[in-house]
Every structure is written in structure tokens, then in C-alpha cells.
Amino acid sequence: MPEYAKNQPAGFKNAVERVAIVGAGGTVGSHIVDALLKTGKHTLTALSRKDSSNKLPEGVLVAPIDYDNEATIIAALKGQQFLIITMAPNAPRDTHSKLVQAAAKAGVPYIMPNQYGADIENVKLGEEIMLGPVGKAQRDEIERLGMQWITVCCGFWYDYSLAGGEARFGFDFDKRSLTIYDEGNIKNSVSTLSQVGCAVAKVLSLKELPDDENDKSLTVSGWLNKALYITSFVVSQNEMFESVKRVMGTSDADWTVTHESTKKRYEDGLALVKSGNMAGFGKLLYARAFYPEDPGNCSDKAQNELLGLSEESLDEATQVGINMVKELQRRPERMAS
Ligand SMILES: NC(=O)c1ccc[n+]([C@@H]2O[C@H](COP(=O)([O-])OP(=O)(O)OC[C@H]3O[C@@H](n4cnc5c(N)ncnc54)[C@H](OP(=O)(O)O)[C@@H]3O)[C@@H](O)[C@H]2O)c1
After folding, report:
1. Ligand 1 centroid – CA 174 distance (Å)
2. Could you say which of 21, 147, 268, 310 is the most buried, measured as most Cβ atoms within 10 Å of its Cβ?
């Protein structure tokens, strides 16, 4: 049965105002916080490990938590309407579940699970990059515990992936080298970190529920147990390279370009992962997304226009990515996988 604001108890306010976020100071979390704060419509509470040294953005309330003490997580989540989880990929596997279980006990109705990647409806790709079943299990757990989810399908983060070393989009800015997968013409749909933040803020700033059956406006409830699809650009490695050269004022002569087959990169990455070397993961993940017959392109589902998201410039995003290179190099755990 669809829910309407008109049927809610007296005092119901048709808005998502109290938002909790894990990873407020993180790669994507900081962009989500920034965009949410700009709306002026939300009170943000950052759940952060009690001994974390990560810097949290100004303007958020801080709730220190201890993953080994559920009561601290439940207390931090009491009264929250929406929990956004952005968590380091190397966090212990059960951390997501600890948050979800605590959210259920605290009465939080909605959760954005820690995904922010490929199209959840492309099951084959999800299985081959190994992340699909993990995300499905996270969403299933949310539903099983009586809550609802909204997950973000944004493809690769363009700026981050450009900056993040050879294993990602093939660029090594220190060596001025580029590995092109196959011929470099296969396109992926990708999103900038800031566009992910804007999209999340747009959805969470909608009315929570339609007023009544005649209300056809966009609402948060329209996305429940569904993906939020966004795309900044649909771009090939060759197009990225053209953009990089324009932005850096360089030419082909300044770059060493090699080609490698996506299939070989995928197999090599997989072999490394199977031997316990997570350096292979990025390699297999990005190589698989550029398979000619089934690339990571879900731009046909993009909801940018529906949400009124601004158009972006590829070259500006390329500049943002180049500016991120040193910052990512200071995160060795990130560069190693
Ligand atoms: N589409 C893409 O290209 C792409 C790329 C990378 C990642 N992703 C996805 O986005 C998600 C978020 O990535 P991110 O880079 O934003 O995360 P991140 O910045 O590395 O980490 C986010 C937060 O996780 C917490 N954290 C760190 N280590 C932890 C640990 N050992 N145990 C528990 N919490 C820990 C920290 O919060 P506190 O210190 O405040 O506790 C940190 O600020 C990833 O898990 C992945 O699913 C997508």
C-alpha cells in the first residue's frame, strides 16, 4: 500500500530532516555532507569511530561510536530518519551489518548502503567484479530487518579514478604513462564525486511522501528499495586522454602509451586476488568495466534530468582529478587495491 502524508499521525512533517552519516570526512561522504549542508534542510550527525583521527567537516554534529559496543551506535542513531553509509572498502566485513542492525533497533526507517558503483541490475557484471553479491546481501539485510534502502549507481567516480593510478583508468601522472585497454574506445558512464553529493542531497530534500493519491511530485519514497542512477559523463579512455592533454597542455609526445587486453588484465587481476594480493582487485574491476560486449554503462537509466542536476564539464572534472593525484598517493591502502 502506498503511504501518503495525509494518513500520517498528527505532527508528521513531510521531510527528511535528521540524517546520520558514516564517513562524513571520507572520499564520497565529504561531498555528500557538503551538498546536504548547502540545502540548509538537514541536521547532520556524523557517526565516527571514537578513536578516529579523520577530520570531520564543520557543520555536522559528531557522534563517536564503538563498533564493538552496539549501544553506542544505537544511541547515535536514535531519532534519525535516514542513515547514509560511506565506509572504507577495507573496513572489516561485518561493520556494515553492525550499523544496519543497530539502525533497526534505533528505529531508523531508511538506509543508503555502502555501494556507490556499478548498476545493481547488471547481475553478471556484479558477480564478475565480486561486489554485486556483497551489495545484494547488504540490501537484503536492510529489508529483512524491516527497513528500506536507496542505493547509488553512479559508475566509477571519474575524478578519483583518473587520479587513482594505473590500475584504474590507466593513467600514471608521475610517469606520464597511460595503459589503454584494448583500443580505448569503449565508454563507461562515470560520475564526479561532487555530482554524487548533489544527487543524494536532491533526493533527500524532496518530500518524504506524496501528500495524497493525486500528488505526482517526486518524493523520497519514490526511490525506496530502488537505485538512484546518475551519470556525469559517458566516456572512453581515449576521450579521457584527449581531455588530460587539453587540461595539462601536453601532447602525445609527452606520454608513453601502451595497450593491454581487458581480458588479460581481468585474468591477471583475478589471479592476484586469488593468491591473496588485493592489488589485483582494482585491475580486475576496471578492466571488466571496459569489456566491449558488456561495459559499465548505465547512462540510459540516468536520472540527472529528472533531479535537475547541473551539466558538468569533462575538462573541469579532469582538472579536479589531476588535483587529487597527490592526495590519493598519501593513502597507500587505497593505492594498493
Ligand atoms: N565508484 C567508485 O569509483 C568508487 C571508488 C571507491 C570506493 N567506492 C565505494 O564507496 C565506498 C566509500 O568509499 P570512500 O572512499 O568514500 O571511503 P573512505 O573515505 O575510505 O572511508 C570512509 C570512512 O570509513 C571509516 N573507516 C575507515 N576505516 C575504517 C575501519 N577500519 N572500520 C570502520 N570504519 C572505517 C572512516 O570514518 P571514521 O574515521 O569517521 O570512522 C572513513 O572516513 C566504498 O566502500 C566503495 O563501496 C566507489
Report:
1. 25
2. 21
pLDDT tens, residue by residue, 287-330:
999 999 999 999 999 999 999 999 999 999 999 999 999 999 98
Tell which atom from ligand 1 comes closest to the C-alpha of 131: 47
**How much distance in Å is there from the Cα of 99 to the middle of ligand 1?**
14
222-225, long-range: CB < 8 A, 24+ apart: 223/150, 224/110, 224/148, 224/149, 224/150, 225/139, 225/143, 225/148, 225/149, 225/150
Domains of the chain, start order: 15-156+192-229 (3.40.50.720), 158-188+233-296+310-336 (3.90.25)
Q: Which residues partner with 117 through β-bridges?
A: 153
Strands 226-229 and 148-153: what pairing?
parallel
Distance, CA of 142 to chain centre: 18
Whole-number mean pLDDT of the chain? 96
Question: Mind listing the pLDDT tens digit for each residue in 150-202?
Answer: 999 999 999 999 999 999 999 999 999 999 999 999 999 999 999 999 999 99
Amino acid at 177: S
For residue 150, count other CB atoms closer than 10 A to its CB. 23
Chain centroid to CA 216: 28
